[in-house]
Amino acid sequence: MLSETFIDSNLIKSVANAELKSIGAKIFNSQRISPEEGILLYQKAEIGFLAVLANFVREKLHGKKTFFNTNFHIEPTNVCVFTCDFCSYSRLPKEDGWEKSPEEIENIVKSYSGKHVTEVHIVGGVHPKRGLQYYGELIQRIKKIRPEIHVKAYTAVELEYIFRKAKVGIKEGLEILRNYGLDSIPGGGAEIFDETIREKICADKVSSQGWLEIHETAHQSGIPSNATMLYGHIEEYQHRIDHLERLRNLQDKTHGFNAFIPLKFRNQDNAMSHLSEVTLLEDLRNYAVSRIYLDNFKHIKAYWPMIGKQTTALSLSFGVDDIDGTVDDSTKIYSMAGAEDQHPVMTTSEIVELIQRAGKIPVERSSLYEELRVF
Ligand code: V47
Ligand code: SF4
């Protein structure tokens, strides 16, 4: 049998471009690549070359293990004071949005009674009438019903707004929420950090600097988080690398990010519907470059309700090692934006089958990536 090192070194030799050759050698030697090299990978590398490099990094970290968890989402409201152009989901306060009462939210949690779920993910619009205490008490109510559940709640967009409204600093605000039961912070709201692009697609919400500051403070307070990147709209490769570079720098400082989640722009029913969605090849390229570039992130997550099950299965050969969770038809953000799955739900056995058919080993994980069950 050919040794992997032999295949790897032959792969490098077979690449005509000298710069790509040197990038390949760096990756096989576990060296960090520069922003210029990251851009070159996006622009010039063949998809097969990227797959081998990304898979090398993935297997060095996790072998064939692929992680998922058993979770559901709560979306308290789609009423939002902000006006992100890519959002198909939100409604302005003067429009006819929906809002769940605390009792309705409690009933969602109670509906899982006796069922195996380990995480609830709470994210929604930024409602002008809701404040820090409301958000905190929501967590408290959930924990009262399910004390053991991991609460991953509120993006930096929601946090920046409620802390500002409550006139508390980030550290203090996070401490208050932690005392109510907050366990970690989801990665949403990062979009794209480049200020010129951000100004064009989501001018009025938390700035890039604000997003990074909230996550940095959370990490310093011992609250882990995720990071996302919205790609495939008006940004260029340089903007994606700038985004990854800012995340890599923060992760060097804090090591508080659990996973990076690229989110593909979906174009249905929003103010950016005139833009085409990028191709499957571009999705795979993006997963691979993200895996290669973010050498200090342990996990790259494909969010299947957003990209569909087929692309998710393919992504496992392009650097992805985590496919989020069962979700249980509890999110509307992506179906309203045009995702294939109008009712996103996968049972544990469907997830296990998807992962096994892709040639990988399914591992049910906790929210903090402890291995709960290997299939
Ligand atoms: O920030 C909104 C995105 C995000 C569209 O941390 C869109 O585990 C594509 O935070 N096309 C919120 N994307 C979702 C989020 C998330 C999702 C999955 C896992 C985790 C995690 C976090 O949804 C927003 C925005 O980037 N989004 N509209 C759209 N049309
Ligand atoms: Fe509001 Fe979030 Fe939609 Fe932006 S993406 S409009 S912050 S719900």
CATH architectural category of the largest domain: Alpha-Beta Barrel
Which ranges are low-confidence, i.e. pLDDT below 50, for 5 or more consecutive residues? none
Tell me the name of the CATH homologous superfamily of the largest domain.
Aldolase class I
Number of strands: 10
How far apart the termini lie comes to 27 Å
CATH topology value of the largest domain: TIM Barrel
Derived from helix and strand composition plus strand pairing, the structural class reads alpha/beta
Q: What does the largest sheet look like?
A: 4 strands, mixed
Count of structural domains: 2
- Looking at how many chains there are and whether they match, the oligomeric state comes to single chain
Q: What is the count of helical runs?
A: 15
Q: Mean of residue pLDDT?
A: 92
H-E order: HHHHEEHEHEHHHHEHEHEHHEHEE
Hey, roughly how much beta strand do the residues contain?
5-15%
Q: Give the helix level as a range of percent.
A: 40-55%
Q: CATH class of the largest domain, please? A: Alpha Beta
Rg for CA atoms: 20 Å
Shape: globular
Bound molecules: ligand V47, iron/sulfur cluster
Strand order of the largest sheet: 8-1-9-10
